[in-house]
């Protein structure tokens, strides 16, 4: 029996891990890096910001300044709560609980209480989960079985052997096979994977495969982002089990989702590009515009995906990207050495890239060549791919859908 359980744990974990690249839609985790004082095109409002809890001595993330407002940025928490409650949808389950969790995130992250920021947060929640704390993924069990079958075929493992092994009972008395059949949410899949991995490790086998559940909670926030952000800024709640599991709670999913959306400064003059960044990764809209300028100057075709470098396991790859290859012949005009170009490109996930010599000089050349200022932000052109998505969707589509919800929310201010 022990041998069978070991085989079950190993086989199941490895097969489930095979879903990692296909189960979740394309969403680049937004890295949290050391932040320098930033200049934002979002105009500040004269009112004082909310009174925050003490930040870390060296914060690695920066709360945004208030945007141009259709309503005041309240500094009084009572007024801020009243504004949020006015803007939230009326018919959602446990409306007061949702409101409390959203407002607590704004307080902890030191984000101004504005209609714009409240509407941005609620619009992403509505788009990502329709106000479900643990959103259901239709047909999740079937998706997992399909990936298991594909991986089993790739490894030459007969499916009858796989299904037989998965008949072993799990901790709740149900078989692993039954639990896969009944999977409804990413939280359930995460718990199942963690149990399978723990069982394998109890036999002294350490699994190198990565948990296939990459996002979770009502804002579908990246778990990698949440873990990174918690190291840079104090998480306001006691961690019950793990930071990963906090993402699957309503309070944690909302907190980290709002952090990913708003807890950094950007040079955008509209929140539309924050929505695009939320899907594609921080600063992707700025970087896609930079890629468009590079393409015009170099007369080369470049994918406008917002990634200026190639990445492997979350780190810059030694293999040059198409953006880098297009910039290299321009080094003389830019008056930058190859090393200086690569140095500046390494800043692409930070606000500082916008102040780098490479960014400033390349746009100066591109603006001159075009005889007009080129856009400094465009929606990244990324096709979203996942078994959870049955239509042809893109990052731009996502941003437009959120922006539509956002505009509806803002209309409540004038009503």
UniProtKB/TrEMBL annotation:
Biased composition regions of type Pro residues, renumbered to the chain: 49-58
Low complexity bias locations: 59-73
Entry keyword annotation includes Signal: yes
Protein name as catalogued: DUF1615 domain-containing protein
Segments for region (Disordered): 43-75
Pfam families cross-referenced by the UniProt entry: DUF1615
Entries under InterPro entries matching the protein: DUF1615
UniProtKB keywords: Signal
Lineage top rank: taxon: Bacteria
Signal peptide region: 1-17
Signal is among the record's keywords: yes
């Amino acid at each position: 029996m022990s041998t069978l359980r070991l085989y079950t744990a190993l086989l199941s974990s490895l097969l489930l891990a095979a879903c990692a690249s296909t189960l979740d839609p394309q969403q680049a985790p937004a890295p949290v890096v050391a932040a320098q004082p930033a200049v934002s095109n979002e105009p500040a409002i004269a009112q004082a910001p909310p009174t925050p809890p003490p930040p870390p001595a060296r914060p690695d993330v920066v709360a945004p300044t208030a945007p141009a407002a259709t309503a005041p940025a309240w500094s009084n928490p009572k007024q801020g709560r009243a504004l949020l409650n006015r803007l939230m949808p009326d018919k959602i389950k446990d409306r007061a609980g949702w409101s409390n969790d959203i407002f607590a995130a704004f307080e902890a992250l030191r984000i101004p209480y504005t209609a714009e920021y409240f509407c941005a947060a609620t619009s992403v929640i509505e788009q990502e989960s329709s106000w479900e704390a643990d959103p259901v993924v239709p047909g999740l069990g079937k998706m997992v079985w399909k990936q298991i079958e594909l991986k089993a075929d790739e490894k030459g493992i007969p499916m009858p052997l796989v299904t037989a092994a998965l008949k072993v009972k799990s901790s709740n008395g149900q078989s692993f096979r039954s639990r896969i059949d009944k999977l409804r949410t990413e939280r359930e899949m995460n718990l199942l994977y963690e149990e399978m991995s723990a069982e394998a490790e109890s036999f002294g086998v350490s699994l190198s495969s990565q948990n296939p559940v990459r996002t979770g909670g009502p804002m579908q926030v990246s778990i990698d982002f949440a873990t990174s952000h918690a190291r840079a800024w104090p998480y306001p709640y006691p961690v019950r089990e793990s930071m990963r599991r906090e993402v699957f709670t309503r309070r944690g999913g909302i907190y980290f989702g709002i952090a990913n959306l708003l807890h950094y400064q950007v040079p955008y003059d509209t929140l539309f590009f924050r929505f695009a960044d939320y899907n594609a990764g921080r600063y992707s809209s700025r970087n896609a515009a930079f890629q468009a300028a590079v393409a015009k100057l170099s007369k080369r075709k470049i994918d406008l995906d917002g990634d200026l470098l190639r990445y492997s396991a979350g780190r810059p790859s030694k293999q040059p990207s198409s953006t880098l290859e297009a910039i290299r012949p321009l080094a003389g005009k830019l008056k930058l050495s190859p090393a200086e170009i690569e140095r500046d490109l390494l800043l692409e996930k930070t606000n500082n890239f916008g102040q780098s010599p490479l960014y400033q000089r390349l746009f100066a050349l591109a603006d001159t060549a075009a005889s007009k200022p080129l856009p400094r932000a465009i929606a990244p052109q990324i096709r979203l791919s996942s078994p959870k998505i049955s239509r042809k969707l893109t990052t731009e589509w996502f941003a437009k859908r959120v922006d539509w919800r956002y505009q509806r929310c803002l209309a409540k201010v004038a009503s």
